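Q: Okay, next protein. This is FAD-binding domain-containing protein from Cladophialophora chaetospira. I've checked the sequence twice, so it should be correct. Can you predict the 3D structure?
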Amino acid sequence: MSSLRIAIVGAGPAGLTLARLLQLNNVSCQVFELDTESLSRDQGGTVDLHPRGGQLALQEAGLTEEFKRHSRPEGEAMRLLKFDGRVLFDENLQTSIRPQEYANRPEIDRMQLRHLLLRSVKPGTVVWNKKLQRVEKSSSNPTQFNLHFENGIEEGFDLVVGAEGAWSKVRSYVTDQRPYYSGITGVELWATEFDTKHQWLSEFIGAGQCFMFDEGRAILCQKLGNNSIRVYAGVRQPEDWVETCGIDWTQPEEARGKLVGQYFSDCADDLKRAVLDASENLVPRKMWMLPVGYRWKSTPGVTLLGDAAHVMTPFAGVGVNLAMVDSLDLAKAIVSCEGNPEKIPHAIEAFEDEMLTRAELFAKKTYKGLVNHFSANGGEEMVEMMLKG
């Protein structure tokens, strides 16, 4: 196995977890990442890691104690409101016993998770500033692959793993399937230094997160561990809504006002204030997904993980957890072939079958979450789910 050349494209949770697990088993690999360095791009908000998801992968990677140092169990606390401000559920005020399926899911900032994983891999594992253009078979060895980046070519890999997210270029090698618009656009808003600048918003959200679900719209607020808050105002609108709605997104203050005035005007004052108060940044984001249950024909030497394999909307909170379990299972598949590299294609085909079967189950759950989050009774349905399992 020491002579096997493995390229992992993407230094997100999937790619870095895989690299860590392979290195623990003395399997070398190289990770190629489009970011110029670890802090060059915002990694998003906060994510909860599940006992049988991300936490399991971190345990196998020997990183549980490191995770505990950076995770925030208090971030699990949830408030659920109706559009008119009525409180449906508030774990800040009551002690509720969640069903086991929804318990023990501490939050961790995505940036903290990335740094945790980066520190765990060997120096030089990640090659930065590598934006992939395409994967090609080697002309000199048909069992190997070359990676064409914007700034050069890396040659001679026996296995290429695409872990670079929704718009994976590695995916293009195994299938022509591309993500499609989910019907939802979220407007991401930031509030930084909430301890001094946004104390009201911090108290409104509580220790963790605050949600409002309604027909065709939703507001989701999350508190991060870096003294900041992310507010997401989501709407069910056509794919071209960002371009055609008449809101000038380059003028954040005006855009927030129009967003609230046109789509949340009948909401409770506190909910409108939450959107208006998150004033440090504004980014409209269209949400994409791959078809539920889609598969590709296994291709020897190339495979996919995480969003590259099964991107879905965030409305079940499983994306990172699935990605890290994918990495755990792929690492086991590769290591199981030690001394018998000819067995790797079969092992990866079996891995893909199990991964995509699991992904289909969670994609169905996620699509149900999308429907519920943007329905009039979505809040009540979540309360019932949280209390009864």
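A: Here is a summary of the prediction. The chain has a mean pLDDT of 94. The longest helix spans residues 344-373.
Q: Noted. On to the next one.
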